[in-house]
């Protein structure tokens, strides 16, 4: 049964400011009877307890409770005082089964009625599943089903102002940021009362007795139960595990009548300033101010803790102790000692003002540090630092992760709304990792993934995790390419995992996945075979793509070789091209059967226009072949093939990774280092220079190329030495071999 669906009488209570929690509201019921005057009301007894009635001229209904017709505005008692020995609260079912009576310390505070109706308007469950739990001297929490709300109670004014004298053999407790080290001074200051919070000038001294921060102040005798305890000293930094370089001061406002053991920590320190402000400025009673400050401060760190800060211990084993340690670690973070002291003062200033940590930049700094500390696996190290002092270390990690998750906008990792594996962007605009949307990278491209594993909650997501957020991989096949959501890079689905494509996969547009390992194939847009290896696609020198070309003009057959994106003749052209003008002649050197024929420039370009009409006249007499030639230029080559341009020659050289030996035919003494790995079989045919037909046979390899960029005559030839190549434009009258490349 949810509290916002139930009715009860409104408590008339004293509380701080607007903090009174009114869970009681007016009900609209058709069966409430209206009476002219109070005297006309029927007798209130056990038989009609819980019934409601209206009296004319009154704006609130009355309810029958404890044999009295009580206005819904207040309970039968204007003020309820609860003593420690009578602090328990419970509910008793009403006689009509339509609600429960709330009883605290033997007094009835009011009635809780169920207004949910069943069939035909019948009242529903009587609400017997509601219970109350005493929180402190001024607070009771009402639980109904899975919901709860807080009731503010009152205590006698004399007790609130602390008029009761107290005498103690000693006051003991722990001083902890990390734990204060042995020898630090601890002081207790007597207060005039719990209303003014002024000091009397009476001070009791004690000291830290061990490195866990245990202190003792002997023989304390006070005229007022309220006092201020302060400690200043060095402490063991729980983040670094080392003794602090500078001392800090911590304070606590305590009720020594109810607390014989009082701890000092960052929460009591924050609470101290806030309580002083509430008492001085808002006129709150001290206990209510302490309760209100406690709720505000814990709320600022996304914690709902029942235990008072002075009862929390970073070495304790309770949930509230874990929350203290988490807050202590967060506030300390990785700042320098001097920075931390100033930082803590700033936090106190903001929270002390109105109970809200409004310095969003400072808070975001803490959140960012907490995120990275968790993501980098730093929390186990912090735990180990504390374990060196105490065998008991509470589960502070959960509270730290909740704070940074909520404050960053990532959410609580591992909750129903944020399952393991979810990737999110930080939405806190003060964070260094802020992004307006998941794909926004203006300020930060960092994204976090809910790891929800031992030692890590949120961690920094990898590029793959960022790029595939929300992707449905159902029925995904190996080798499938996916475009990254964040980076735009392509990923490959390989053996049920995702990875970024390799350079070779990008180049050949084919995934080299596990099931293709050691397989060779001709890839899209390629003429050569590639093998799928652990490094990606690699040129397969053991599987060269040889073929044949039949020149239909004379029936000669030539060997061809595919090298990456080019298909070449694997031997020089041996087509007899002779016309009347010797400029167009072709020559044959009987000493070199593998050299093919030697052609003048006019013959190479087919200047007679026999096969390439557009090349007619592009010979010795032409000074600008570029105006009439458009690549590819077939020239003297077979149909479907053409004379290679300089760019195509350079493309071949780069395809061979500038390894000239890999293109050279083996078996020639002066090319002793030749490997011919690509099967191109370049031979040292030299040149022929008519009319003496002399040349450099067996020494160099000179071969024709079309150059429509660097030379207006459109001609060029390559001059290969053993380990280098040069481009030359010496003379069109020389005769060189020709290699043709496929269109």
Low-confidence stretches: 1-30, 73-86, 116-128, 155-159
Instruction: From the alpha carbons, calculate the radius of gyration and give it in angstroms.
Output: 46 Å
| End-to-end gap | 83 Å
How many H/I helical runs? 12
Average residue-wise pLDDT: 82
Helical amount: 10-25%
Shape: elongated
Largest beta-sheet characterization:
6 strands, antiparallel
Percent of residues in beta strands?
25-35%
Q: What is the total tally of β strands?
A: 36
Q: Give the helix/strand class.
A: alpha+beta
Number of domains: 3
Order of strands, main sheet, comes to 12-15-14-13-16-17
Q: Main traits of this protein?
A:
alpha+beta, four-stranded antiparallel sheet, single chain, 12 helices, six-stranded antiparallel sheet, 36 strands, elongated, 743 residues
Summarize the structure.
The chain is α+β, with helices and mostly antiparallel strands.
Structural features, described:
This protein is α+β, with helices and mostly antiparallel strands and 743 residues long. It folds into 3 domains: 151 residues, no CATH class; 201 residues, no CATH class; 197 residues, no CATH class. It is 17% helix and 25% strand. The strands form 11 sheets. Strands 12-15-14-13-16-17 form a 6-stranded antiparallel sheet. Helix 2 runs parallel beside helix 5, helix 4 crosses helix 8 and helix 6 crosses helix 8. The protein is elongated. The N terminus is likely disordered.
């Amino acid at each position: 049964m949810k509290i916002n669906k139930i009715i009860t009488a409104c408590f008339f209570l004293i509380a701080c400011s607007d903090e009174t929690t009114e869970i009681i509201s007016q009900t609209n019921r058709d069966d409430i009877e209206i009476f002219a005057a109070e005297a006309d009301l029927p007798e209130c007894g056990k038989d009609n307890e819980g019934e409601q009635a209206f009296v004319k001229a009154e704006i609130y209904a009355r309810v029958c409770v404890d044999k009295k017709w009580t206005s819904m505005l207040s309970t039968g008692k204007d003020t309820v005082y609860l003593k420690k020995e009578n602090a328990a609260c419970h509910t008793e079912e009403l006689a009509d089964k339509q609600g429960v009576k709330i009883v605290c310390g033997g007094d009835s505070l009011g009635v809780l009625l169920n207004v949910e109706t069943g069939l035909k308007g019948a009242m529903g469950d009587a609400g017997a599943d509601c219970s109350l739990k005493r929180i402190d001297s001024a607070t009771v929490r009402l639980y109904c089903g899975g919901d709860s709300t807080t009731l503010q109670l009152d205590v006698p004014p004399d007790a609130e102002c602390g008029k009761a004298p107290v005498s103690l053999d000693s006051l003991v407790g722990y001083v902890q940021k990390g734990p204060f080290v042995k020898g630090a001074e601890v002081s207790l200051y007597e207060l005039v009362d719990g209303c003014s919070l002024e000091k009397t000038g009476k001070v009791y001294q004690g000291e830290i007795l061990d490195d866990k921060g245990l202190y003792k102040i002997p023989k304390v005798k006070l005229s007022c139960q309220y006092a201020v305890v302060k400690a200043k000293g060095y402490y063991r930094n729980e983040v670094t595990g080392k003794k602090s370089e500078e001392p800090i001061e911590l304070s606590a406002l305590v009720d020594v009548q109810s607390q014989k053991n009082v701890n000092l920590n960052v929460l009591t320190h924050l609470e101290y300033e806030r309580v002083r402000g509430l008492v001085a400025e808002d006129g709150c009673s001290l206990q209510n101010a302490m309760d209100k400050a406690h709720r505000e401060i814990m709320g600022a760190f996304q914690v709902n803790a029942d235990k008072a800060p002075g009862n929390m211990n970073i070495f304790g084993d309770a949930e509230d102790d874990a929350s203290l340690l988490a807050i202590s670690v967060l506030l300390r973070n990785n700042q320098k000692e001097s920075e931390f002291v100033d930082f803590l003062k700033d936090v106190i200033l903001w929270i002390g003002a109105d109970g809200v940590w409004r310095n969003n930049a400072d808070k975001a700094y803490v959140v960012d540090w907490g995120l990275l500390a968790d993501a980098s696996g730093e929390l186990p190290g912090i735990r180990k630092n504390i374990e060196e002092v105490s065998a008991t270390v509470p589960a502070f990690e959960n509270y730290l992760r909740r704070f940074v998750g909520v404050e960053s906008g990532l959410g609580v990792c591992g909750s129903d709304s944020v399952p393991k594996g979810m990737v999110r962007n930080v939405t806190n605009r003060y964070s260094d990792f802020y992004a307006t949307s998941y794909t926004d990278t203006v300020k930060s491209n960092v994204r976090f993934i809910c790891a929800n594993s031992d030692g890590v909650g949120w961690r920094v997501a990898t590029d793959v995790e960022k790029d595939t957020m929300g992707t449905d991989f159902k029925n995904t096949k190996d080798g499938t390419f996916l475009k990254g959501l964040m980076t735009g890079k392509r990923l490959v689905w390989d053996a049920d995992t995702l990875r970024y494509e390799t350079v070779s996969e990008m180049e050949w547009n084919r995934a080299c996945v596990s099931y293709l390992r050691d397989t060779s194939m001709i890839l899209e847009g390629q003429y050569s075979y590639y093998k799928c290896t652990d490094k990606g696609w690699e040129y397969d020198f053991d599987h060269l793509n040889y073929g044949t070309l039949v020149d239909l003009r004379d029936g000669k057959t030539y060997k061809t070789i595919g090298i990456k994106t080019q298909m070449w003749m694997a031997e020089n052209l041996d087509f007899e091209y002779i016309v009347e003008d010797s400029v167009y002649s072709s020559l044959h050197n009987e000493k070199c059967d593998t050299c093919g024929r030697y052609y003048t420039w006019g013959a190479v370009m087919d200047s007679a226009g026999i096969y390439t009409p557009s090349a007619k006249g592009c010979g010795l007499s032409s000074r600008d072949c570029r105006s009439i030639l458009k690549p590819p230029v077939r020239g003297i080559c077979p149909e479907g093939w053409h004379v290679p341009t300089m760019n195509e020659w350079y493309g071949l050289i780069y395809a061979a990774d500038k390894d000239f030996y890999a293109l050279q035919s083996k078996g020639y003494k002066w090319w002793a280092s030749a490997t011919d790995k690509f099967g191109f079989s370049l031979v040292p045919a030299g040149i022929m220079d008519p009319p003496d037909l002399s040349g450099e046979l067996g020494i160099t390899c000179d071969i024709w190329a079309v150059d429509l960029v660097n030379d207006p005559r459109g001609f060029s030839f390559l001059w290969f030495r053993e380990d280098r190549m040069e481009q030359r434009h010496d003379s069109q009258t020389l005769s060189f071999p020709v290699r043709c490349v496929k269109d």
